[in-house]
Amino acid sequence: ISGAGKILQILQNTSTNTDAIGSNATSTIVTQAITPSSSSNKILIFVSINIGGDNNSYGYGQIKRGSTVIGAGATSSSRPLVSFGIMSALNANFDYRMANHNFTFLDSPSTTSATAYKITFANQGGGSAHVQYQNTPSTMVLMEILA
Q1: According to the model, what pLDDT value does residue 91 have?
Q2: Are 128 and 95 a contacting pair, CB within 8 Å?
Q3: N or C: which terminus of the chain carries fewer CB neighbours within 10 A?
């Protein structure tokens, strides 16, 4: 197969590290680097993370290329850039009920340098958020697509 749309490389990183993210705290969940073979190629990002939370825990996820948030909605003066939202139920012991969150984004990094992507979670609620509480993995897959 040749031509635009060909998959040139696929890289994956999976994390099973558990993390309790307290109120108003941010944590990096999983990272993966890729070196595009051409600056015109695209990087297709697949994210699958597992988060539960205490009563009234909620927050948001961000996909970052380096320190730049990508795949996010428009910014406003009172709201952060968010790639995907996460909210727990408003009841006790939600940390025992993991929820899987998936997100896909096609990025144009415009570089042939090694490029690090990471998924972060920011907890804005009153309780703690729990990542991989029951040892469920969180994964990021990067695919270089020929432009």
Answers
A1: 57
A2: yes
A3: N
